[in-house]
């Protein structure tokens, strides 16, 4: 049975991408400091404590979930801009296209954006989640180009006993007719602050929590191609007045950006001007082509 590779936090983005392309998932140790994880927990725990377990087997009846993390936890920006996740996403998801506009032959490189965020708190007695591919939201055909990359950050220690995420290494290369078998999955055991970075095409699922008093916390952050619809509606999850509090890099990852050419504009211009205070809806249109 294939195992998951664990890399040190000092690993390069190229190291991460190499393992992702081979296995579909990789654990990277110590991505987020204990101090930042403490802040994120303090900001999210009131929401998790007030949220009941899920109403279906897939989401988990002993599993509490809270989404819209960027709108609830200012400290979670560190999870979105973590260099290994963002670097791997940019290497694997940015695509270059060529096209004519009249006689001019243009070449554009696509951007990446935040797709979805969620804190997942698996309680004692929770059964294993069905193995699945997260990129099903984008109606992907396999094998084929990746549509998303994500990290499950360990908010607590991840163990086989408390419901560590189960991953099927190599399953990102399967076609759409091969059914995953739980016997092929291995637990992503890791320490708090570490992360499981995985492709949207790899089969995985929450594990069984056989403990009597230990919950397992994961914080999921996924990044997709800039021209795809975001899985989570970030404009509802993170209102404009909240988005304004973040650095421009985060704002653009949230979706206040144009994927060149002409994808995501407002009044045929850069939507980021709204966060800068320019609310005009009678502005001059812009040529949103490569410069």
From TrEMBL:
Q: Which UniProt keywords apply?
A: Dioxygenase, Iron, Metal-binding, Oxidoreductase
Query: Could you say which residues form the signal peptide?
Result: none
Output this protein's name.
Phytanoyl-CoA dioxygenase PhyH
Task: Tell me where on the tree of life, at the top rank, the source sits.
Answer: Bacteria
Q: Which PANTHER family match?
A: PHYTANOYL-COA DIOXYGENASE DOMAIN CONTAINING 1, PHYTANOYL-COA DIOXYGENASE FAMILY PROTEIN
> Any keyword Oxidoreductase?
yes
- Kindly list the GO molecular function terms attached to this UniProt entry: 2-oxoglutarate-dependent dioxygenase activity; iron ion binding
Q: How does it assemble?
A: Homodimer.
Q: Which SUPFAM superfamilies match?
A: Clavaminate synthase-like
Q: Tell me what organism the protein belongs to.
A: Kineococcus rhizosphaerae
């Amino acid at each position: 049975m294939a195992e998951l590779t664990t890399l040190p936090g000092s690993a390069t983005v190229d190291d991460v991408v190499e393992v992702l392309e081979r296995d579909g998932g990789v654990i990277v140790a110590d991505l987020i400091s204990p101090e930042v994880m403490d802040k994120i927990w303090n900001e999210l725990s009131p929401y998790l404590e007030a949220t009941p377990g899920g109403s279906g087997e897939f989401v988990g009846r002993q599993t509490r979930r809270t989404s819209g993390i960027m709108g609830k936890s200012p400290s979670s920006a560190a999870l979105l801009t973590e260099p290994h996740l963002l670097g791997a996403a940019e290497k694997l998801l940015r695509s270059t296209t060529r096209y004519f506009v009249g006689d001019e032959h243009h070449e554009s490189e696509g951007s990446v954006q935040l797709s979805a965020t969620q804190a997942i708190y698996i309680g004692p007695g929770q059964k294993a989640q069905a193995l699945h591919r997260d990129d099903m939201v984008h109606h992907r055909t396999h094998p084929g180009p990746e549509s998303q990359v994500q990290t499950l950050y360990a908010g607590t220690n991840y163990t086989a006993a408390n419901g560590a995420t189960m991953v099927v290494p190599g399953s990102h290369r399967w076609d759409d007719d091969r059914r995953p078998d739980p016997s092929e999955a291995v637990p992503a055991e890791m320490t708090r602050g570490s992360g499981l970075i995985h492709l949207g095409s790899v089969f995985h699922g929450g594990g069984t929590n056989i403990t009597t008093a230990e919950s397992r916390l994961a914080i999921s952050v996924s990044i997709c191609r800039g021209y795809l619809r975001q899985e989570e509606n970030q404009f509802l999850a993170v209102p404009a007045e909240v988005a304004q509090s973040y650095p421009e890099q985060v704002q653009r990852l949230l979706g206040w950006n144009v994927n060149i050419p002409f994808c995501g504009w407002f009044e045929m211009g850069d939507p980021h001007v709204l966060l800068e205070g320019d609310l005009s809806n009678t502005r001059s249109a812009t040529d949103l082509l490569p410069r």
